[in-house]
Amino acid sequence: MSDIQQEIARLSEEINRHNYYYYMLDDPKISDYDFDQLLQKLIDLERQYPEYVRPDSPTQRVGGAVTKQFASAAHIYPMLSLGNTYSEGDLLEFDTRVRGLLNGPVEYVCELKYDGVAISLIYEHGVLVRAVTRGDGTRGDVVTANVKTIGSVPLSLTGDYPDLLEARGEIIMPYDSFNTLNADREEIGEQPFANPRNAASGSLKLQNSADVAKRGLSFKLYYALGENLPENNHFARLRKLHEWGFRFPDVMEKVTDLSGVMDFIRVWDEKRKELPYPIDGIVIKVNDFAQQQQVGSTAKSPRWAIAYKFKAERVSTPLLSVDFQVGRTGIITPVANLKPVSLAGTVVKRATLNNRDFIRDMDIREGDCLFVEKGGEIIPKIVGVDVERRQPDAVPVHFVTVCPVCGTPLQQNEGEAGVFCPNELHCAPQIRGKLEHFIARKAMNIDSLGEGKIEVLYAQGLVSNAADLYDLTYDRLFGLEKVMEDENGKTKTLSFKEKTTINILKGLEQSKSVPFERVLYALGIRFVGEVTAKKLARRFKTIDAIANATKEELVEVEDVGERVAESIIQYFNNTENLEMVMRLKAAGLRFEMGEESRAASDRLAGMSIIVSGVFSVPRDEIKLIIEQNGGKNVSSISKNTTYVLAGDKMGPEKRKKAEALGIPIISEEEFMEMLGER
Hints:
By secondary structure, the protein is α+β, with helices and mostly antiparallel strands. The protein is built from 25 helices and 22 strands.
């Protein structure tokens, strides 16, 4: 085998491996830019040496493999992939080729390249009958039930629509939904998604469409196909689809030359930071359909369109050391301490290394220079190793085998990436984490305590579990003091003076009126988040009933699978946990459903309400009232939202969106009148 053949084989295998990580596991190991560079290198070699093209070459594929979790269906028209470029020179070449083939004027349409999951929506006689992912370009996964939960996808069309229509677009997850989802996952000890695209892809693969409905996904239209469709150009046809019930793209512009294309790119390379959802480039399409046909397509991609992808800002900086942090649930998270470097307007000093597998797959070694990106990500992330700057004697980063705090041998459950310390009751960071979780706003809401004060109380030996908090007295608290140091080396003194002490005791006393479902959530049972705690409380009514429930009884509760059930059983089988619960009971905390937590009426049954702004009572109370009267709290506005309940300082963007969709905006007073309370 020649050197060229070997290089082609190596590139093919590497790209196929990364395709597997990306499409099958939703766990990309390299950035889009690096992947595109690998693919382009292979394309160039195969062009130069066509005799060496392998039948399994990734250049012969349109997309990734089809998953086995869903039924598959053939696409009516192949879902081709767009050619990508990061080069203005390639755009010039594209423009020259198109104009040469057309031998006349051409009009381009510039659009945002949404960073999500491509989807094909099939409408028969105006009704959505099938939603199919790209898959391998000829067949994809049927995810109709999941897609129907997305508010921006019309279930039926209006007007003079055709008998058969295929609408194509991107399923995306807006930043607000992404942040909420990751916060919820972290609360129950699950690994957060790396980016909104992975979150959108993972959401479409959920087995329960009710879970998909909670994810806040959105559909962005970008093309339409069918026989005898109206209009002779792309821009006008999408306008027509808008008349039939689809949302017209947020940003779309017609230009007549390459300079107009470049102006559009430059504007949105900067303005993309203002968008509420992720994009990773700009798509340029020939507008006229007859000209599209004339320019034609290859087996893999249309010649009449190209995607210009934005480069994520990337820097290389040395790895100084690795810290191994212990979370509330015992999960060990490696964190890279980096030589401070400026990136996208902030100074980056630290970035997560995720888990043991990440370090191994990246082949990260001590003293390596690491590539860090922000791009469309919310936080900086490690995307690779600058191997050219690696020292020849560099040794791999060693992942700890015992807890870095308590010394307990670490464990790993089958099927989970996380390595954890099982010493949950006697490991200091787990204890502090559980205490901080217990006092959090969505749990016991003891805002007079906080992370710093908890640290002082723990260091003084005054608290080691939640029950100890209720044994605190004025004499024990008054006069406590500790010098604290932040990550920048600045110090401050935390003192428990009279006012602080009184406020802590007052907050603890007030927490005794917190409803049962929040007390249950506050216990910090692994995998039992806020929503699950609420459902368990409503099903079993008391803590004793939950503690004595069988696995079969627990899994009957919505959202409680075997893993959650086993975690609950394990929690209550621990004598120290039972003792703590008994002490909390004796302290006066509520461990059974009260009348106020039960349904008050069905006046809001079937209504989806979003709460925004400041009210005369805490917003959580407003949300509780909605639930007690049969309504549903939602986090994002869609055409399916019944009302927006607006308080003072309501977000202007939410108001604008509600008005655009025609969603009624009601005041707190009007809301109370609906309930017959004013």
